[in-house]
Fold these 3 entries.
Entry 1:
Amino acid sequence: MSKKRRHGSKSEVIRKINRTGGYSYYVTIPKSHIEELGWRKRQKVVVTLEGDQIVIRDWNPGST
């Protein structure tokens, strides 16, 4: 399943980028991360590109 790799002072979970259909890609997020954030199934999130990183944040309808 997932592999853990030590990087600096934190442990990283290594995942593969997968393709779905012809135009989209996906990466699975570990269940433990979702639970730690308090997120739930079908929750809306915002995906942004910040420099060379992809950032996933909870969607807050009041902030748009």
Entry 2:
Amino acid sequence: MPTKFSGTDEEKNSLNSFICLMRASDTISGEIHTSLLEKNLTISQFGILETLFHIGPMCQKELGTKILKSTANITTVLDNLEKRDLVSRIRNEKDKRYITVELTELGRKLISEIFPQHVKKIESIFKILNCDQKKSLQEICKTLGKQF
């Protein structure tokens, strides 16, 4: 549903683009979130597990930056993952402020089991687009994101 705002054509076009982008994002996020809930994971928890799985151990601050979460939010997410024995936090002996986060064996097992299903889910969502459309979408999103 397009905007009912009665501004200039450029304003309406920008608002309609934003509305379409947000609706698509919300719909896709909802689909992904539903499949993660079956594994009792939030999108943020999955993001941490997936990042550590593919990149390896890293400091808590860098991990927050990678999954676009604030320091306060990342702490809460890590607390919950740690309670489930999916990650562990290791304080640096020389600088106690520096905390490295790594997957536990249980965390590695879980993410290695669910990541292939996650990829299949995303692939099924995006199959409606051809290769050129996917590349265009990537470029558009990069252009939008790089402006800030």
Entry 3:
Amino acid sequence: MDETKIDAATMGRLANALAFICGADHAATKALKKAAETGADKDVKAARSQFLKLKSGDRQAAFAMLSD
């Protein structure tokens, strides 16, 4: 994943997709929700880090859910 900026609304949608895939209590889901709410650089960085720790299949499934 490159350094592409994702707006807060998209991060929120991605968090919802991850809640379905990984569960609402998953660290990546929580981090994305927090980043979507605050928009703070440190929260966005933490969310990106957690997202990259996911299995590639989970990341691809989350992105696929965004395109629907």
